[in-house]
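Quick one from the shared queue. A colleague (R.T.) flagged EamA family transporter as missing a structural entry in our internal table.

Convert sequence to structure tokens.
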Amino acid sequence: MSYRRHGLGVSPATVMFLALAAIWGTSFPAIEIGLHSIPALSFAAMRYTAAGVIILAYASIATDRWRPRSKHEWLAASVAGVLVIAVYHGLLYLGELRVSGAVAAIVVSLTPVLTAGLATVLLDSDIDLVEGLGLFAGFAGVVIVASPGSGSTDLLGVALVFGGALAFALGAVLARPLDTDLPIETMEGWAMLIGSAVLWVGAGARGESLVGVEWTLPAIASLLYLTLVAGCIGFLLYFELLGRIGATELNLVGYLEPVVAAMMAWLLLGQVVDSQAVAGFAAIFLGFALLKRDVLSAVAIDTADAVRSH
């Protein structure tokens, strides 16, 4: 895999970037549909058990290492599995029992802002006044989404999704000192399996059972979509884009996901995101723009150069 960055621009990377945003944005209403029939943590566990097996099978073919070998590598996979897969998705699925997928996507878009804040606290990263304002704007956005007056939100539901986003950000920060030579496909596959095991334990603790589940066509379609499309195809696109444009620019996909989630929630479920949630999302994006103003400027320059070259 080549790790030379090309930028987004008008290129195959742009097409893959938009496809990834569409796939992962659609996953939020897909989760909501499946939760009508399948218990929350069992639903997440099934998805990542199956996706983990598929990704590892791919890793065994596409890479030279299909499993971790050292304690350090197992620790890295475990951190990703517990925080990024299990805690994040467990809280997200529980949160979507109370809030719409579109609102959940807006709250999750805070993740890059939370990552920057946690890096400052845990890794002694420097932060200037503008970046501090960015952190404040991001948190203010979640407060706007969760505050009374919005007919589409529930305070506990937003809190659960926010907790999931915080866990994802914490996993991303803790993974930095644990950087390994393990292929990312292998890392992701084992993280999925470790995370799904934790989710199965959580499902048992909640008393969830699949015995009485009514396997309706929408529930089956939701599970298949989340496993095969959002899980497998989505992560394969993610791996490819990681090599083409780098992790920092790839974070921008999180700000297209709420737009896609809102459109699909309207098409599939007849839901409309209210103006308060839109204002919250605008504040969160402003926070990200202040924190990553250099990245956004570089993307804009790359895009303009690519357009001129065509």
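The longest helix spans residues 217-245.
The chain has one domain: 12-305.
Added to the table.
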